[in-house]
UniProtKB/TrEMBL annotation:
<dbReference type="InterPro" id="IPR036291">
    <property type="entry name" value="NAD(P)-bd_dom_sf"/>
</dbReference>
<feature type="domain" description="Enoyl reductase (ER)">
    <location>
        <begin position="10"/>
        <end position="333"/>
    </location>
</feature>
<dbReference type="InterPro" id="IPR013149">
    <property type="entry name" value="ADH-like_C"/>
</dbReference>
<dbReference type="Pfam" id="PF00107">
    <property type="entry name" value="ADH_zinc_N"/>
</dbReference>
<dbReference type="InterPro" id="IPR020843">
    <property type="entry name" value="ER"/>
</dbReference>
<dbReference type="Pfam" id="PF08240">
    <property type="entry name" value="ADH_N"/>
</dbReference>
<protein>
    <submittedName>
        <fullName>NADPH:quinone reductase</fullName>
    </submittedName>
</protein>
<dbReference type="InterPro" id="IPR013154">
    <property type="entry name" value="ADH-like_N"/>
</dbReference>
<dbReference type="InterPro" id="IPR011032">
    <property type="entry name" value="GroES-like_sf"/>
</dbReference>
<keyword id="KW-0521">NADP</keyword>
<dbReference type="InterPro" id="IPR051603">
    <property type="entry name" value="Zinc-ADH_QOR/CCCR"/>
</dbReference>
Length: 338
C-alpha cells in the first residue's frame, strides 16, 4: 500500500510517499480503506517538531473510509461499514495519510449513509473540539441536540475557521443564538453560510460595542481561538457565570487578564485539547456529532461556509503547507476515489 511517512521532524519536505506492507488488525482493531484524509494544524505542528518517539510516522488524525477487515473480538463493525476516525494518530505512529490504516474501535465512528467522505474526514478534530467548547459549562448541558442551548447566546471567535464553523453549526442545531467575529467580508459570508445569526467584522467595527448591542444581557459561552488578543472583549461581553472555552493560542502564547473582572462575574475558563480529554467526553461528542450529521446540521462545502481544498496523496506535503499558511476551509487529501 502507499503511505505518506516522515522519519524525522522538520519542514514538509521530510514527508515522502512510500510502499508499505498491508497492516493486519489485531484484537479490538479494524482496518480501514481510507478514502479521504483530513489535515489539521496539529498534523504540521507534530511534523515540525512537537512530536517524537516513533521511528516512522504516518500523519493524519482525521479520515473517512470503509472497513475492509476486522480483528478478533470486534463486534461493533463489519467489513463494508462506512466510518470516520477520531484522533487516529494520537500516541500512535500510523494515522490516515495512507491507503489503509488500522485503528482501535474506540477511535472509529460510523459514518451516516447520506454523509460524504469529505464530511467524514472533516469531523474529527474540528467537530469534537467544538462540541467540548460548547458543553463545558459547569451548570449547562453536557450534551448537544435540538433545544439543549435554547435561550443561550454563543460567541464564536473566528467563525470562518474549521472549529469555529463547527461550533456555529452545532450551536445553531442546539437552539442557540450565534454571534461570530471575522476579519473580512469574505469570511463574513462563510460564517453566515454556516448559520451564524450575527457577524461582526472586528477590523472595521468596535467589536465589544457591536456584541453588546446584539446581546445586551450578555453572552453565555465564548468559543475562543485567540485569548491573548480577545480576553478583554470576552470579559466585557460575557454575562455572570459565563463560560470562556479556549481551544487555541492564535495571536500569542501568553494570556494576561484583569482578575477582578473575572471574579466579579464568576466566570468559568475551560482550556481544552483533545489529546488528554477523557474518553467518555470524546464518546459523548462523537454521538452528538453523528446525530447532527444525520439531521443534516453539520455540513461542509462552500454553501456551508467550509470551502474544500483537495490534494492527491502524493501532495500531502502541499496540503500540510496550505493548512500552515492559513487556508480558509478544510484541506483534504484524496487517498482513493469515493
Amino acid at each position: 500500500m502507499r503511505a505518506v511517512v516522515y522519519r524525522e521532524t522538520g519542514p514538509s519536505s521530510v514527508l515522502e510517499v512510500v510502499e508499505r506492507d498491508l497492516p493486519e488488525p489485531g484484537p479490538g482493531e479494524v482496518r480501514i480503506r481510507v478514502i479521504r484524509s483530513g489535515v489539521n494544524p496539529t498534523d504540521w505542528k507534530f511534523r515540525a517538531g512537537m512530536m517524537a518517539g516513533h521511528d516512522e510516522v504516518v500523519p493524519g488524525q482525521d479520515g473517512a473510509g470503509v472497513v475492509d477487515a476486522v480483528g478478533p473480538d470486534v463486534e461493533a463493525y463489519a467489513v463494508g461499514d462506512r466510518v470516520w476516525t477520531v484522533l487516529a494518530q494520537h500516541g500512535r505512529p500510523y494515522g490516515t495519510a495512507a491507503e489503509f490504516t488500522v485503528q482501535p474501535v474506540g477511535r472509529v465512528a460510523p459514518l451516516d449513509d447520506a454523509a460524504s467522505y469529505d464530511l467524514g474526514a472533516s469531523l474529527g478534530v474540528p467537530a469534537v473540539t467544538a462540541h467540548r467548547a460548547l458543553t463545558a459549562a459547569e451548570d449547562g448541558p453536557h450534551r448537544l441536540g435540538p433545544g439543549t442551548l435554547a435561550g443561550r447566546v454563543v460567541l464564536v471567535a473566528g467563525g470562518a475557521g474549521a472549529v469555529g464553523n463547527a461550533a456555529i453549526q452545532l450551536a445553531r442545531w442546539s437552539g442557540a443564538t450565534v454571534v461570530t467575529t471575522v476579519s473580512s467580508d469574505e469570511k463574513a459570508d462563510l460564517a453566515r453560510a454556516a448559520g451564524a445569526d450575527h457577524v461582526v467584522n472586528y477590523r472595521t467595527s468596535d467589536t465589544t460595542e457591536e456584541i453588546r448591542a446584539i446581546a445586551p444581557d450578555g453572552v453565555d459561552i465564548a468559543v475562543e481561538v485567540a485569548p491573548a488578543q480577545n480576553i478583554g472583549i470576552d470579559l466585557d461581553v460575557l454575562k455572570e457565570h459565563g463560560l470562556v472555552s479556549i481551544y487555541a493560542n492564535n495571536g500569542g502564547d501568553e494570556l494576561t487578564m484583569p482578575l477582578r473582572a473575572a471574579f466579579g462575574k464568576n466566570l468559568r475558563f475551560q482550556f481544552l485539547i483533545l489529546y488528554t480529554l477523557h474518553q467518555h467526553l470524546v464518546q459523548a461528542a462523537v454521538e452528538d456529532v453523528n446525530a447532527a450529521v444525520a439531521a443534516g446540521a453539520l455540513r461542509v462545502g462552500a454553501d456551508a461556509g467550509v470551502p474544500l481544498h483537495h490534494f492527491p496523496l502524493q501532495q500531502t506535503a502541499a496540503a500540510q503547507d496550505a493548512v500552515e499558511e492559513g487556508a480558509v476551509g478544510k484541506v483534504l487529501v484524496d487517498v482513493a476515489d469515493d
